[in-house]
Design brief:
Elements (H helix, E strand, L loop, with lengths): L1 H58 L5 H23 L5 H22 L5 H26 L9 H9 L7 H15 L4 H10 L11 H11 L7 E6 L8 E8 L2 E8 L5 E7 L9 H14 L5 E8 L3 E10 L4 E13 L5 E5 L19 H4 L5 E11 L5 E13 L2 E10 L5 E6 L2
Parallel strand pairs: 7-9
Antiparallel strand pairs: 1-2, 2-3, 3-4, 4-8, 5-6, 6-7, 7-8, 9-10, 10-11, 11-12
Helix pairs in contact: 1-2, 1-4, 2-3, 3-6, 4-6
Length: 430
Amino acid sequence: MMRSLLFVLSFAVVALLVYVNSVNTDKEQLTYLLQGQYTQEMADASGKLTDLKDSVQKTLLFQDEQAIQQPLEDIWRLSSEIRDSVASLPLDQGFSNEWMNYLSRLGNYAKLTSDGQIPDEEWQKVMAQTVNNLSDFSTEWEMATASFFQNDVSVEKWMANIESKQPSNNWQSMGKTLKTYRESDFPLTTSESDAQKKKDLRQLEGKKITQNDAIAVFKKIFPAHADARIHVTESRKDAPYPFYHLEFQDGVGLGYADITQKGGNLLSLLFERPNEDKRIDSQLVKELAERFKQNSGFTDIVLDEVRENHTAWHMTFVRVEPRYNAKVYSDAIQFKVAKDNGDLLGMNAMEYIQKENLKEQPINKFDWKTFFNEGVKVEEEELAYTENEQMEQRLCYKLIVTKKENEQQITYRIMVDTETGEVLKSENVK
């Protein structure tokens, strides 16, 4: 009897040691993968920042409209690609906001210049200073990121540095520098200033919650992670808006979530774990996303777009304004859902949690047969909001139209102002 008991206990201990070793090995492998991914994204951003500065310099060489078009297109493309790289990195929040803002404005300015909406002399005037600012910032970026290109920086050290009150790489200082650059290079109009306040969540209302409240909110929204180990830190005092940063470990998975102190709104989620070698039905993925939508209280949003890669579904939900039953594309939530088991791997609700200020607007009828050329067919029509050049929300007819070109049917998405008939957006749907 005693031998049997000792055998069982020994077997249990060995099994436990094997399990713990397996979990630690998986966690270590995941950490290496994350470190490699983050380092690669940082390297990509650094290389493209140099290319971006070169493209801005090239625009100052030419007066010919055709010659300047390619560098303008490069600026628009590179600014977007750098934003994508920065968005995937766990960097200081204030720095990320300012850098993304500056890149957005630079890219949009290049696009407007390419379309002839900004005079060449105005572009030359602004870029003369911008190229100097980009050159100075490139030097600061290289100094701040140098240590991350070395193999001795672990993910744990990286996160500890970012969450520190005094980061060694001084991301706070770089964020303030970028804010100064943006205000000098691209001063905000009144409507843009209002939009920036929304982006920074300065007008966010609601009762202030505690760290324990934030954990309770997290567990309610993500019951699958209710047993995870959670570590909570507060945003620094100079953050654009106060929030709680939750770092959690669930099995071999590592995750991060941000929840606002005012109102306890979920801002974002990132969950990293190894992918399993299986696939679930795409319809089930959509049902799981809908179920999460209900659990989190996002009841006024509808699925608008679905994309996929080899590991995940990327879904965009947008808020529906009840007065006109119109989609509000500026109030969107992005979900990333795993293909192997339906886990929610990522979420971004920053655009949604502070709703746009929408005004009443006349809805005039237009004859699409006379509005479009012969051969253009309106396939779909619905109401939706989008921004005009003054960054004001306008109610539009969202039209999906098709036209045959060179024996191929081309599809366009067109936004037409319901009051003025102005085409605010027109894009090819691939």
